[in-house]
Amino acid sequence: MTAPQSVAEYVRLAREAIAAGDIAAATQYKDQAAALKALGPLEETAPRLDFGTGDAGAQSAQGMALKAWYGEHFGADLDKDAELMMRDLYGGRDVRALAHAKSMGFYRYLRTGREDEMARKVIMTPAQVMKLLADGQTFEGIKATQVESQDALGGLTARFA
Question: How far apart are CA 107 and CA 89, in angstroms?
Answer without folding.
Answer: 24
